[in-house]
Amino acid sequence: MRTAAVAAAVTAAAAMILNAETPLPRFTDITRAAGIAFQHTNGASTEKHLVETMGSGGLFFDYDGDGWLDVFLVDGGSPADAAVARRARHRLYRNRGDGTFADATDRAGIQHRGYGMGACAGDYDGDGRTDLYITSFGPNVLYRNRGDGTFADVTAAARVGDERFGASCAFADLDRDGDLDLWVVNYVNADPARSPFCGNARQGLRFYCHPLKYDPLPSTVYRNDGGVFADVTAASGVGALRSNGLGVVIADADDDGWPDVFVANDTMPNFRFRTSGGLRFEETALVSGVALAADGTARAGMGIDAGDYDGDGRLDLVITNLDFEMHTLHRGLDRGLFTDSAIDSGIGYPTLPFVGFGVAFLDYDDDGRLDIATANGHILDNAPRFRAGSTYRQRKLLFRNTTGRRFAEVGRGAGAAFAAERVGRGLATGDIDNDGDLDLLVTNNGDSAELLRNDGGRGHALLVTLRGPAGNREAIGARIRVTAGARTLRRDVKAGSSYLSQNDLRAHFGLGEATHADRVEVQWPSGARDTILAVDADQSITIEEGKGLVTRAGLTMRAF
Amino acid sequence: MRASLTLAATLLTVAGLPAGVRAQADAFVASVRELAAGADRSGPAAANTARAAAPRLRAALVEWDRRLGDMQAAVDREARAAADRARILHIELGVAYRLRGRLDAALREFDAAATQQPAGSDLLLLRALTLEAAGRTADAGAAFNAAFAAATASPVKAYYAVRRSTAGTAARATALRALMTAYERLDVRTRSPVSPPFLPLDAVPDTLSRTPVVADAALRETFAHLAAGRYDDAVAALETLEPATRGANDPRALLVHGQRDEAENRIADARLAYRAALDGTLTGRHALLVALARLAQVDGDTAAAIEALAAAARLAPNEPAVHKELAGAFAADGRRDDAFAELMAALLIAPGDAQAHAAIGGLFLDDGRDAEAVVALTRAIDLAPARHETRYALARALTRLGRTDDAARQFALFEAARREALERRRRDIASEVEREETLRGDHPAGSGAR
After folding, report:
1. What is the pLDDT of residues A5-34, one digit of tens each?
2. Closest chain B CA to residue A288
3. In chain B, domain spans
4. What percent of chain B shows pLDDT beyond 90?
5. Which residues pair with A95 in a beta bridge?
6. Chain B closest CA to A324's CA: distance in Å?
7. Is pLDDT above 70 for B358?
8. In sequence order, what DSSP letters do the residues of A69-90 get, joined into one string?
9. Domain B2-185 class?
10. Which pLDDT does position B245 carry in this prediction?
11. In order along chain A (560 residues), what is the average pLDDT of each group of 10 residues?
12. CB pairs under 8 A between A and B
């Protein structure tokens, strides 16, 4: 017994030392325990239809308005096998607030059509309830949230049923008329009936084709005219620009009050669309410095996010790419210009072996600095036959922001589930347990999704929900600046980012040691500003345009 | 380029020794070459072959030492010669000892040379390099700075002062300014100097081979001694050589493991294997260190990458590619001054290296020194007009300077080339697919995988 007691004391002492030395949060896989039983259908076949490897996305949104984030997961399908295609089902999971989720798909009335790709959510009709748009290889679908736990398919009436190869989408008030418009990124023109043979006929090797085998497509731009959308792609100038688009994020990068649309393009230069009104866009990526990597090459852009990782008040961009390319990190300079900081930030070389898809800026350790998480997985299910050393399943990456300018990859130490190798595609962030740290939703191609709970946020935090006027109740496009001590943090409200995915619409601020924010300033899409002084940390607050702080609630202490 | 000429003069002095300081080592180096050539074999027969080399190496060492003895005697005889003559003799003998790996004796001779008259910068540099080889880093740092202080217009000595001196920030800033001035005055049309600007002082230079020459378990100890300049120990180890079985102590097997681990993306394992293989690598260690550095970068270990590349640059001081790779690692770590110094080292070796000019342009661009970036990038484009990525960087620098018309012209040229390349690739993929589909007897039109 004495030996055991000594051993226990030594173990306890070691744990204290470990706690002191390894205080970083870890992610715990709670998917199964939470009741999320989603299995993605990718329809993988010997015909190697391109869509089979693209995966599908997922999002966090509070569809029932109860203050707890719900989960929506897009399912794929099968171009090659109708029976497999029939088994595909999107899934909506309602957060019960006790650590479990209820499958609310049937009750919600959400059906599956085509081959599901991505989703984005926003209150397009201004009724205060968050609606849902699903992109597909096949017809896209708009679901209006009735507010009673059910959704109505309003695709036809709203005129947003594009049948091309849709990818990521985003809601934003592009023309600043007060309601939410819709941007849909399209990938390539692929024939669902027949897949070209890419590979080596003699060796009987077949791979998914390179995207340049297909014709590129332009994005689709929908203007919201009172709940019905007008396709303004051609008139906006966007229709003339075809590319292999996959990711999109919309935010005002040059602080001119107008949203900038950034599109990540696969093997073609990325786009940056600028407008100065009237839904006419000018494509300026090349001059802005975001079209290409520093070496002047177009990379295989997949996922994209915007955030101010260096705390200089300007937005930066992160884009995931193919292996042997490096993911790109475009640091914002003045005058709306960017510089590729992938290598000097430390994210360049460590991403070389990875095919990146979902990506998000997130302050996972609540220290006030934006970190980066990526979901990775190869395009080729037979990757080792194509290139020795390549693997189809790849681990996720977590880049911890250590100095404001540099990152260290800490994914292997972020929990067994985080470090596990999967065929990652979509990735979204949100605080599912309202405890002030950001959790993750990850989708995997042809595999189960993952709900990863963040355990161990060390700092204080603030969650900010915005309420805009009717038309854009979620204040998508607003910018929030929180000042705590010497630091001012910027977060933008975005409805659609990453790869085929969307994050929590609430803005999350890790405050580190600060127990309160000195100042919270909201710049609304209308241009108006609200400022609230002296806000205690560890709260979830709601700010309404013109009214200021309207609700506050303490964060939960590890609700589940 | 003036400094490289003065160093070249030192080299000529070394080469012009009466008995031929370099030539003293020739027989030994030739035997080492033979040993290295047979190093890819293993087993008892290989051990026999290697053991057979021992008498030749022993004889070469004896002859080398005899000649050194003659030189020492000559220096002792002429100790009272005119100061200039005595100084040269001490320097020659110091270099000869340095080549033989007798570092203390070399330093003694360099110090004796310095007493004859105020030490020149070349002598100070020889002393610094020898102190560095002896592991006396702090003394070496001070000596590098003294060498630069004695010749502040010399970019080579400025390079050493930036990279290896222990001088304070003011002296480092002075050396950086000297490098910058040298860059501004650099004539990109100048041919590479006949004599390399950086003086290699090892009898068995690492650059004897471009790829690593790695021992099996039996030869590991011999190679390790040779690589460290411990030639007597190396020959003694060879004379008592026993065949060894392959195992954890077999550097060549470790290299193979490392290559396999690298190919299969097991980065940490590959790093361990390469690091272990390094102990038994005779020459071409710089190449192995570059591979180690690349792996370290993928592992996010920038400090290890820099350490490995800095070691590679010491081993292969006249390899521009190593300096450029080290510059890249410094840039990745935000150490732009060190990166610039390494790129200048590359340009001192090859003034017309377009890639190095472009990289300097990139450093300036990252530093917000847009006007200087335009100068460097323009040089790079003049040297290599087909490097479209440089044109892209130039266009961005011009944009940041507000020279929008110039930027537009460069963007247009870049875009035309990029679009053409994209369409060519699209056509290539289409024709590959068509060919494979035809072979398959499929549809009219299949490779084209990504």
Report:
1. 333 333 333 332 333 444 789 999 999 999
2. B396
3. 2-185, 353-450
4. 68
5. A101
6. 11
7. yes
8. -EEEE-----SS-HHHHHH---
9. mainly alpha
10. 57
11. 34 33 82 97 96 98 97 97 96 97 97 95 96 97 98 97 97 96 97 91 92 97 97 97 98 95 97 91 96 95 98 97 96 94 94 96 96 96 81 96 95 95 98 96 98 88 96 97 97 98 98 96 96 96 97 74
12. 132
Interface test with B, best of A46, A270, A343, A381 (most B CBs within 10 A): A343
Task: Label residue B317 by pLDDT band (50, 70, 90).
Answer: very high
In 10 A of CB B175, how many CB atoms? 28
A 366-385 near B (Cβ less than 8 A): 379-380
The reported pLDDT for the residue numbered A451 is 98
Reported for B368-377, long-range contacts at CB under 8 A and 24+ positions apart, including other chains, are B370/B397, B370/B400, B370/B401, B371/B401, B373/B397, B374/B398, B374/B401, B376/B183
Q: List A144's β-bridge partners, or say none.
A: A152
Q: Are strands A115-122 and A101-103 parallel, antiparallel or unpaired?
A: unpaired
Interchain proximity B449–A212, CB inside 8 Å: no
pLDDT exceeds 70 at position B23: yes
pLDDT tops 50 at residue B369: yes
Could you say which of B297, B366, B433 has the minimum Cβ distance to residue A196? B433
Structure tokens at B40: 């890819």
Say if residues B180 and B108 touch (Cβ distance below 8 Å).
no
Taking the CA of residue B389 and the nearest CA in chain A, the distance in Å comes to: 4
Least CB-CB distance to A353: which of B298, B430, B439? B298
Q: Give the gap in angstroms from C-alpha A259 to the nearest C-alpha of chain B.
A: 22
Select from A286, A349, A388 the Cβ nearest to the Cβ of B300: A349
Surface-to-core class of residue A50, CB atoms within 10 Å of its CB (0-12 exposed, 13-18 middle, 19+ buried): buried
Indicate the SS3 state at residue A256: coil
CB contact under 8 A, A294 and B446: no
Cβ pair B80, B112 in contact under 8 A: no
Tokens of A271: 């786009």
Residue from the list A197, A386, A389 with its beta carbon closest to the beta carbon of B437: A197
As given in the structure block, the two tokens for residue B269 are 């394992």
CA B155/CA B5 separation, integer angstroms: 11
Average pLDDT over all residues of chain B: 88
Domains B2-185 and B353-450 agree in fold: yes
Enter the CATH code of domain B353-450. Answer: 1.25.40.10
Q: Which of B297, B422, B443 sits opposite A349 (nearest CB)?
A: B297
How many residues in chain A?
560
Strand order in the sheet with A271-275: A245-251, A260-265, A271-275, A281-283
Token look-up 């955030």 returns A307
B130: left (phi over 0), alpha (psi -120 to 50) or beta: alpha
Give dist(CA B347, CA B360) in Å, integer. 10
C-beta separation of B78 from B108 below 8 A: no
Q: In sequence order, what DSSP letters do the residues of B189-225 get, joined into one string?
A: TPPPPSS-SS----SS-GGG-SS--B--TTTHHHHHH
Q: How far is B309 from chain A (nearest CA, A)?
A: 16
Strand pairing category for A181-186 and A220-225: antiparallel
Query: Shortest CA distance to B306 belongs to which of B290, B319, B318, B320?
Result: B290
User: Which helix (H) or strand (E) element contains residue A529?
Assistant: strand A529-536
**B422 to A333: CB separation less than 8 angstroms, yes or no:** no
Q: Are A72 and A59 in contact (CB under 8 A)?
A: yes
> A270 with A261: CB under 8 angstroms?
no
Q: Write the burial class of residue A412 (CB in 10 Å: 0-12 exposed, 13-18 middle, 19+ buried).
A: middle
What ipTM score was computed for the predicted complex, to two decimals? 0.85
Q: Do A210 and B450 touch (CB under 8 A)?
A: yes
pLDDT value at B446 more than 70:
no
pTM of the model: 0.90
